[in-house]
Amino acid sequence: MAGPLSRSRHLSAALVLAWFSALALVVAGPLLGGGHLILLDFPSGPEFPRVSPLPLPSSGDVGNALPVTVIHASLRELWEPLPEKLVLVLPIVLGGLGLYRLVRQTLDVGTLAALYAGTLYAVNPFLYDRYLAGHLNFVLAYALLPWALLPLLRAVQEPTRRAAIVVGAWIAG
Predict the structure, then answer these.
(1) Which of 17, 27, 22 shows the shortest CA–CA distance to 88?
(2) Global pTM?
């Protein structure tokens, strides 16, 4: 049976998730309408760019182009505009929740202070400029930073083999 403390913790987590989800919908709202996104550096549309599975090193396609295109293609099978809309909402939710969690666990601050920190991390002028310029993969990487930093801090405080493997997986990813 769940006690009052457990229920309170679950309610708090649900409210924090609701806050960052609502924040993401407010920020991304104007871009969530029908049709494809037309942003400066974000290719979208009915056709995918051609990506070679074995690109030449001089082509500039060596890196994450193939896995990202595969993820986009699989999400488009569910609903055509899903990857475009998801990449607008996901960074704000992930970034806010990530910094909220990081601040709560490392600095031992209250819920409102951590919520404020996560909000400022997820929505700030630098990030919004990158967002509107279409640097959505950069914005997503920025959102994952607090999630990667917490295992690194834990590994520095208590070095174990498991902590080293988790940090190594984040670096490899």
Answers:
(1) 27
(2) 0.82
